[in-house]
């Protein structure tokens, strides 16, 4: 019994979502089935991408020397770090949450907060496949203008976030990693 | 699988082989770690994905379209930005959706704000972001992204 409670506590969100589905199945089965159907696209996307993401995260964590990350994405990586972060984010695959484990490892290995914001944001909005789609449906002018404005915004945001958030604000990085080993 | 997903797998496999040649023991142990990382996050990811399915049932794309096509531009821009923050729609659905709006002569300001918050602000993925980077980082990044999305869209309205 205690074990089950622990599991529920550890997976609060999953418990909440499961309960919602359970209730919805009882109250409105059609909507519940529709919701499951809607979710399947995302589950498939996740299964296609996340295994590779976790392998890359673990490889960076264990096999890439801290110095390499510190030099290329650290506080003093300067212009090179910014460009590299934009490239990493823009040529990525998958939704923004796929960037979370990788970025967490990068920050632990010495990447600066501002470069992490650049990677996360460009991963989210200025991915190349997305831009191609955008140009197709909304025109090159719309795509290009939004792209430029987004890059400017990301640069401002990366600076602003780094003013408020220090690397030490990222929760118990060391502890979690030891647990995982 | 799209081209970029295939590319991701290709890079992953190449990295794996290169590191395996460099340090076999370390690389094998990093695979164990990958498994543990996945175990650690998968429950929450699944929860988020099924939450998205629920949200899309109650805020379906045609309702989103109605909001974006509203003639009160400022109001519809803010509402579009909010909807974009809550939902997570794949690009191949989102672009045709907004494309048809533009064809009908709708303002591009709400459309730009929707497209930007859709991917950059994640209320649904917030629990995952918080777990990885802490509350402070997640709150500040999402709030700033929302504000800048509005900034981007109004500026686009002026420039186009």
TrEMBL record, chain A:
This is Predicted permease. Pfam families: ArsP_1. It is a multi-pass membrane protein. Belongs to the UPF0718 family. The chain crosses the membrane at residues 81-100, 112-132, 144-165. Keywords: Cell membrane, Membrane, Transmembrane, Transmembrane helix. GO terms for cellular component: plasma membrane. The keyword Transmembrane helix applies. It is found in: Cell membrane.
From TrEMBL, chain B:
InterPro entries: DUF318. Keywords: Cell membrane, Membrane, Transmembrane, Transmembrane helix. The chain crosses the membrane at residues 6-21, 42-61, 73-95, 107-126, 138-159. It is a multi-pass membrane protein. It is found in: Cell membrane. Its main location: membrane. GO terms for cellular component: plasma membrane. The keyword Cell membrane applies. It comes from the Bacteria. Belongs to the UPF0718 family. This is Permease.
């Amino acid at each position: 019994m205690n074990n089950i409670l622990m599991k529920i506590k550890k997976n609060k969100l999953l418990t909440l979502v499961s309960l919602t589905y359970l209730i919805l199945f009882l109250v409105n089965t059609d909507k519940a089935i529709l919701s499951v159907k809607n979710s399947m696209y995302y589950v498939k996307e996740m299964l296609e991408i996340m295994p590779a993401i976790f392998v890359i995260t673990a490889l960076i964590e264990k096999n890439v020397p801290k110095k390499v990350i510190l030099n290329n994405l650290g506080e003093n990586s300067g212009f090179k770090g910014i460009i590299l972060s934009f490239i990493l984010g823009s040529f990525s695959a998958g939704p923004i949450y796929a960037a979370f484990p990788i970025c967490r490892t990068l920050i632990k290995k010495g990447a600066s907060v501002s470069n992490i914001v650049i990677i996360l944001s460009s991963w989210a909005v200025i991915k190349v496949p997305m831009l191609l789609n955008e140009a197709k449906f909304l025109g090159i002018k719309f795509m290009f203008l939004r792209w430029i404005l987004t890059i400017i915004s990301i640069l401002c945001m990366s600076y602003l976030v780094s003013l408020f958030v220090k690397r030490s604000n990222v929760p118990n990085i060391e502890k979690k990693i030891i647990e995982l080993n | 699988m799209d081209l970029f997903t295939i590319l991701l797998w290709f890079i992953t496999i190449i990295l794996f082989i290169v590191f395996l040649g460099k340090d076999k023991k370390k690389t094998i142990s990093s695979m164990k770690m990958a498994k543990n990382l996945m175990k650690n996050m998968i429950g929450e990811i699944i929860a988020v994905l099924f939450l998205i399915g629920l949200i899309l049932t109650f805020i379906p794309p045609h309702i989103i379209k109605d909001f974006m096509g509203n003639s009160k531009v400022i109001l519809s821009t803010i509402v579009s930005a909010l909807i974009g923050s809550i939902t997570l729609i794949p690009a191949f659905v989102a672009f045709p959706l907004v494309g048809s709006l533009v064809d009908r002569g709708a303002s591009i300001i709400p459309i730009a704000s929707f497209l930007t918050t859709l991917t950059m602000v994640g209320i649904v993925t917030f629990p995952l972001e918080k777990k990885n980077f802490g509350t402070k980082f997640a709150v500040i990044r999402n709030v700033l992204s929302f504000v800048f999305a509005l900034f981007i869209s109004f500026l686009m309205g002026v420039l186009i």
